[in-house]
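Changelog entry: the Hydrogenase maturation nickel metallochaperone HypA record was regenerated in this release. Current contents:
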Amino acid sequence: MHETGMIRSLLDTALATARDRGSQLRAVSVRLGVLAGGSAAHLRTHFEQEIGRRKLDGISLDIVEDPDYLGSVEVVSVDLAEPLGD
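Regenerated structure tokens:
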């Protein structure tokens, strides 16, 4: 359940960034640290489930495992499509 909440929060933040910039989210890149409490594969599974639940096909997740990062999961970047026309 912890991962589900983390993924939901991560997606909410990334989608808000895209919306604020008048764009669409294409990908999220995260850094997975030693305190993440799970594997990259496990996190990806939760991401894919949440993407499916929200019907947001086409958004990808890039995970970089960083054993030197003493945190949990950190959003490194978001990839946005060209801004939407008005």
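The two ends are 39 Å apart (CA to CA).
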